[in-house]
Amino acid sequence: MRNVTDSFVSLGHWPSAGSFGFNTDILSTNLINLSVVLGVLIFFGKGVLSDLLDNRKQRILNTIRNSEELRGGAIEQLEKARARLRKVEIEADQFRVNGYSEIEQEKLNLINSTSKTLEQLENYKNETIQFEQQRAINQVRQRVFQQALRGALGTLNSRLNNELHLRTISANIGMLGSMKEITD
């Protein structure tokens, strides 16, 4: 724990203006590298992400339009069913003596089936919208993760040589050993 606090304290100490050299402090260079990688990801990933979101938005809007068209068709069917219902009611008045109960049953069946159809169409529209939104979110997450991973691997591969790799491993082993001693 002392090494970690020393590395942060040493961040406040800057070498004199005339010297130039490599910073071998792993923690401070990792913070700088991470901030650069995050800055690059945000700068370049913003356009790709907005394009992906715009495409998904258009697909979702098209799905909503299709669902609205289906809803419009269902409303048209409902109007036809209401017109048929009015016709049935007129016939019911004429045949009231002969079979009023049968006509009422047909009317109820017609209303129930139309209501069920409308309800099913509305449920289908809502499920489709939810499914498309979830799929869009998952695709965007996957693409952002892939781009971040490619960028991070590219940065690591371009800056990591054998000597630096061995020093990093040795430092990590030392930190793990000191953490094990603290926990024991």
Automatic annotation (TrEMBL):
Keyword Transferase in record: no
Keyword Chloroplast: yes
InterPro entries: ATP_synth_b/b'su_bac/chlpt
Keyword field: ATP synthesis, CF(0), Chloroplast, Coiled coil, Hydrogen ion transport, Ion transport, Membrane, Plastid, Thylakoid, Transmembrane, Transmembrane helix, Transport
One term of GO molecular function: proton-transporting ATP synthase activity, rotational mechanism
Function: Component of the F(0) channel, it forms part of the peripheral stalk, linking F(1) to F(0).
Self-association state and partner proteins as the record states: F-type ATPases have 2 components, F(1) - the catalytic core - and F(0) - the membrane proton channel. F(1) has five subunits: alpha(3), beta(3), gamma(1), delta(1), epsilon(1). F(0) has four main subunits: a(1), b(1), b'(1) and c(10-14). The alpha and beta chains form an alternating ring which encloses part of the gamma chain. F(1) is attached to F(0) by a central stalk formed by the gamma and epsilon chains, while a peripheral stalk is formed by the delta, b and b' chains.
Name of the featured protein: ATP synthase subunit b, chloroplastic
Natural source organism: Plectaneia stenophylla
